[in-house]
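Exam revision sheet. Question 4 asks you to relate a sequence to its structure. Input first:
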Amino acid sequence: MLSTMEQPHLEFAFACRLMFTRVFAIPGVHNGGFRSAVLVDEGVFEGPRLKGRALPNSGGDYAHFRDDDTACFDARYLLEVDDGTIIYMQNKGFLWGRTPDAMAALRAWAFEGGPPVPHADYYLRAQPTFETPKGKHDWLTRHVFIGIGERLPDGNHVRYFAVT
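Answer key, structure tokens:
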């Protein structure tokens, strides 16, 4: 099915589960809020047309947490497809709480062993772009993708969809 002007169509492309346990913060940055960095320790991805792993230590997520407690993230890392192809992925998006205490609860869950936070309590959306060698995976370079994600205690799980 193809998107129309009246009705966009999303096609599942792949899910990606990234684990990051190393967290760094730069508090009180000049444009407000703080900067954080979480580095990719490991990860896996799988979809109808590709499967593989995130290359450990190939990048991370460098989020700016604005004064309104919205995280504007910019993640960059390498994916290795099972056929050996290396893909560069850059992922930008937002994480913010739908409830007043959601972001504090997410931080407590992720960094202090606090209780899980229901997915409905926060918004985690991403828009990735890709660089691939010419060939069977370059379809990734010709589509717009959106990701719907969830924060987990040791990383993220995001399902990506191509706008057809």
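Marking note for examiners. The CA atoms of residues 18 and 43 lie 4 Å apart.
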